[in-house]
Amino acid sequence: MYKNLLMSIYEFLWKNKSIHGTLCLQREKWGNLMTKLISNIFEIPDIIYHGTDISSVPSIEREINLHHNPRRRPDFSTGFYTTANYKQAKDWAEFKGAFSDNSICGSVVSFQVDREKLNTLNSLFFLEVDEHWARFILANRSKKFPNEETLHNRDAKFDLVYGPLADGNKISNLIRNYEKGYYKSIEAFIEDVKCVKYPFPKDHQISFHTEIAKSCLTMRGVDIIDTANDGSRIVN
């Protein structure tokens, strides 16, 4: 029912082109102001964003699923990934829509952050693309479970993690090559794994990994991204 409601509003906005994109553009401009380095949990903005497709919105509204795809091994381990950069979330939503041959619209879901709860979380912040960040990603993404001395988040010891994005298009192959000893140094691996398309800190990821962490988020609104027509439709 909720999906049908979203699509009905989408159709209304499509017919009333004078209001197309206004709120999206405002949010994009505001989001771009929030793309400086976030050095600690107190600097996370009050509104953050999640890029997805419209078919996923009803389930997100019901409950954020921290284990949506347990077979995937994301950079900071299984969790719910967001960003303070609206444009970054919008780009990802457009990718999700295009990935479905434009049959499903992309969507940007905005969340209000409960600052009081947020400030109690056990968090980890990576402030640059460096060896510590690269080894953390290796430990989370590798098929081999890391040893006790290796910093990782497969056990969700960190409620929230912030840092740069790895290059998701080739990360799996890069990690396999590293494990096979093809890299002569961690520096060479870092050079290949850092994401050129999404430069840090403008683009980044804020991931939530525990029940207490996701309880900090309240869904605030949805922007529907029309990938077929390169425009934005707003649902609040």
UniProtKB/TrEMBL annotation:
It comes from the Bacteria. This is DUF3990 domain-containing protein. InterPro entries: DUF3990. The lineage of its organism: Bacteria, Bacillati, Bacillota, Bacilli, Bacillales.
